[in-house]
Amino acid sequence: MTHALELKAIRKSFGDVDVIHGIDLHMEDGEFVVFVGPSGCGKSTLLRLIAGLDDPTSGDIVLQGKRVNGVPASERGLSMVFQSYALYPHMTVRQNLSFGLENMRMPRAEIDRRVEDAARLLQIDPLLKRRPGQLSGGQRQRVAIGRAIVREPVIFLFDEPLSNLDAELRLQMRVEISDLHAKLGNTMIYVTHDQIEAMTMADRIVVLRAGRVEQVGKPLDLYNHPANRFVAGFIGAPQMNFLAGTLDGTTLTLDCGLVRQVPVAPAPAPVQVTFGIRPERVAVSLDGEGDMTVTVENYEQLGAVTYIYCTFPGGERLTVQHAQQIPLRRGQTLGVSFPPDALHLFGPDDTAMEMTT
Ligand SMILES: Nc1ncnc2c1ncn2[C@@H]1O[C@H](COP(=O)(O)OP(=O)(O)OP(=O)(O)O)[C@@H](O)[C@H]1O
Question: How far apart are the CA of 348 and the centre of ligand 1, in A?
């Protein structure tokens, strides 16, 4: 089967620094794939290799069945939207949109059709005569996307396109880019360090860390079944709670004092493990009932949701996300319970341990 894009054993070094350590990935036609990971994990480097702005040290980049290593960026049929927008300040919006096509010596009528179609789609048609300096951040971002659209690329590449926008505008543009994907149906690859963008926009997420793929999957599969502690901690906000403990057979003893049976293949010898539970899966009781008691250190009442920051008697921290408004005060005791189907367990190498039920 021909993939829209295939990366085969891609490695990249700058001098003697290895940045990408051997990545294999494929993307299908029409897929929205998000590369997400902390700063410096190599996501922009990987995107630049795909775009043809840089060459891999080894490995193959295969675009619609054709190896494109060494093929110049302009001949790959891809369009990239940069974090900085990279608009020409002295040109009008119309000129910014048409410039690349003029360089390709496209007939005027075709250029005008593409520019007007893109402007209508992005609702920037009333702005065609303005210069970038006369536009808001969101409008500039739309022009940058428009410039990618008019090239009618086989794949769109986005490099952190929303990171210069304020929170409200980011949310709006997130929805707009998702809508755009639904309308155009192109393959899109989107790089971000923001796991919320990844969760909300992606058909599939690729989680990267230090130049390696940690896990690939649909957003909720990563959320519900993280392959390791890194993915568990990176996807989801507030972050999953992690509590250190020991597993002996099927008996889990946490440092915070909790002892319980867990549905895993019995460990042959006691091992150090990490217990994980998402903040919204911790059940709380104002009466102090439950698996353990904790002390409320701080809390945030947001109306629709309440965040409660607690500590166990030994000082280990626990964040609770409660879906209701409840009366709270600092220093009060709360009962907390961990429902059996909400547990995650990570082995000594931080890999998720399989639950048997
Ligand atoms: N031209 C270069 N020369 C040397 N090192 C580089 C070069 N470009 C990137 N790197 C290094 O490669 C690593 C990955 O960089 P990259 O920009 O791909 O990360 P990123 O995941 O996109 O990070 P960010 O979210 O901060 O942009 C970093 O450690 C960076 O310092």
Answer: 30
For the stretch 162-218, pLDDT in tens is 888 888 888 888 998 999 999 999 999 999 999 999 999 999 999 999 999 999 999
pTM of the model: 0.92
Assigned domain for 185 exists: yes
CA of 198 to the centre of ligand 1 (A): 20
- Do 93 and 177 fall into the same domain? yes
CATH code at 82?
Answer: 3.40.50.300
Strand (E) or helix (H) holding 217? strand 212-217
User: What is the spatial distance between Cα 215 and Cα 213, in angstroms, rounded to a whole number?
Assistant: 6
Q: pLDDT tens across 324-340, in order?
A: 999 999 999 999 999 99
Give the domain CATH number at 302: 2.40.50.140
List the residue whose alpha carbon is closest to atom 7 of ligand 1.
14
Which of 11, 12, 43, 48 is the pocket-test mutation for ligand 1 (most atoms within 8 Å of CB)? 43
Going by C-alpha positions, the residue among 108, 118, 119, 6 that lies closest to residue 56 is 6
Into how many domains does the chain fold? 2
Name the residue at shortest CA distance from atom 18 of ligand 1: 42
Q: Are residues 207 and 313 in the same domain?
A: no
Backbone angles phi and psi of 95, in degrees to 5: -65, -40
DSSP conformational letter for 280:
G
Same domain, 217 and 331: no
Same domain as 171, residue 37: yes
- Cβ atoms 37, 234 nearer than 8 A: yes
Most informative mutation of 44, 49, 206 for ligand 1 (most atoms within 8 A of CB): 44
How far does residue 41's CA lie from ligand 1's centre (Å)?
7
Q: Parallel, antiparallel, or unpaired for β 5-14 and 241-249? A: unpaired
How far apart are alpha carbons 81 and 299 in whole angstroms?
40
Domain that holds residue 304: 262-346
State whether 150 and 268 are in the same domain. no
